[in-house]
Structures are given as C-alpha cells and as structure tokens.
Amino acid sequence: MGVLNFLCLVVATAAGSLRSLAEVASVDLGTAGNFAILSKAGISTVPTSAITGDIGVSPIAAEAITGFSLIQTETDRSKSTSVQVTGVAYAADYASPTPSTLTTAIGDMERAYTDAAGRTVAAANLNVMSGLITGATFTAGVYEWGGDIAFSSNIYIKGTPDDLFIFKCSGNVIVGSGASVVLVADGTGGGGAPLASNIVWQVAGHVDAGTTSHLEGIFLIKTFAAFKTGSSLNGRILAQTAVTLDSVTIVAP
User: Fold this and answer.
1) Considering only Cβ atoms within 10 Å of each terminal Cβ, which end of the chain, N or C, has fewer?
2) pLDDT tens-digit series, residues 16-25
3) Strand order in the sheet with 137-138
4) pLDDT on residue 21
5) d(CA 140, CA 147)
6) Phi-psi region at 130: left, alpha or beta (left = phi > 0; alpha = psi -120 to 50)
C-alpha cells in the first residue's frame, strides 16, 4: 500500500450515487505488506494450497505452521520453504534476524488495523444494506458496518486503479460458497479496474470464506480467518489470531 499518499476520492453509496468529496489516505502496511499471510497464532492448511508470497507467524513458533511440510536447510535456519508456498516461511523461533523482523511486521500489522479502524465514514456509507450486501456495487470511499457483512453471491467494486476502498466491519465477514468480489473498471481514463492492493477490509471479528468463493483485497483481521475448500484470494491475510486454509489459492498483489 506504500506511504500515506493522499487521494481525492468520491464517496458514494453502494448504488453508486454521488454523496460527497473526501480526502482519503492509503493505509500503510509497513513491513506487514511483505507477507501474503501473517498471523500471531498460526497458519494451517489442508493440502494442497497454493500461496504466492511469504508467510510468517509471531510470536508463536514454527510448530504453529501446519500442513505445509516445511523444509529448512542446515546453512540457513532463518527461514523455511514448502512446495505449497512460492516464497518462504518465517517463524519467531527461527534464526536471526527473523525474530526481530517478524516483531516489526506484527507491530506494523496492528498499527495498520488501528489506522483503518479509525477512518471517518460519511453517513451515507454507514451500514449499507444492513450488511446483507449481495449484488451491491461499491465505488471509491470508506464504508462501515456495526455488525456482520454477508454476501451469498457476487459483489462488485467499481473504479480505477488509483481508487481506494476501505471496508470497516465491527462484526464478521461471511462469504457464501461460490460468491466472489468482482473488480470492475468504471470506464474512465482507460486505466482498468481497481487494484486488490488498494482495497482494505478491517474486520473486528472473523472472516469466513465459503467453498470456491473468491475475495480481493488486504484483510486486516482482529481474530481469525477461515478459507474453505477451493476458495481463493487476490490479496493478503494479516490476522491477529489464527488462519486456517483448505486447498486454498492466495496470490499477494
């Protein structure tokens, strides 16, 4: 996500009607942005998952990374590898400098969560569709729900590659089997659709991604994330408790 580059964005409702103009800053992930999955309590998979990007756990030890059949070499005890990870795995009990690197990344993850949680939201973007957002189209801006967000089929995030989206959820994010977050170009400037790296989900509860569902964006999660069989994510999972995967595909943007 990079440094705090300020963008002038149109804040709109899920239906896409113009409401107000606001300055919205990007959420700085710091070194947490180096990970496809970062967790304080563990990462487990039912093989075979496919993760493109690094994974890490801290302050818990490597034994909390399960199902990946991690391999370490005698010459480098600071990391490990897995055939399920296009990247490397890090844990708090690995050799220096990994423990301090992970401590920094966890701190950056927590600061990013707090930053996103504190963003101001226009009244029109509060509790859109009472959290039952199936079929909704979201344009650039900050949105907030006081409870769960749930969708049983597709939702749409519409804009340009420069647009920023922040979804704040005080409850859980529940995604039905086969449902997808679909990125849609708004047709201006010829620049394409929004980027997963510019979509942030701040979730105070947990994330439950149903079988074969597909998500887009950076998930800053206070509790746990469960991605069920065949689900996928173009983005990152940065969780303050555990992450469980079941034959999942994750590609870090």
Assistant:
1) C
2) 332 333 446 8
3) 137-138, 155-159, 181-185
4) 35
5) 21
6) left
| Distance, CA of 47 to chain centre | 21
Task: Residue 252: name the closest of 235, 227, 232 by CA.
Answer: 235
pLDDT score at 1: 39
Is 80 exceeded by the pLDDT of residue 216?
Answer: yes
Number of residues that make up the chain: 253
| Structural tokens at position 77 | 């005890």
Residue with tokens 């999660």: 221
pLDDT at 189: 65
Cβ atoms of 61 and 20 within 8 Å: the answer is: no
CB atoms within 10 A of CB 107: 14
- Rounded CA separation 174/191 (Å): 31
DSSP 27: P
Contact 119, 52 (CB under 8 A): no
CA dist., res. 28 & res. 10, Å (int)? 21
Strands 85-91 and 76-82: antiparallel
Residue whose entry in the numeric block shows the structure tokens 């113009």: 18
CB atoms within 10 A of CB 184: 15
Q: List the one residue out of 86, 114, 82, 88 whose CA is nearest residue 101.
A: 88
Nearest to 90 by CA among 115, 65, 69: 65
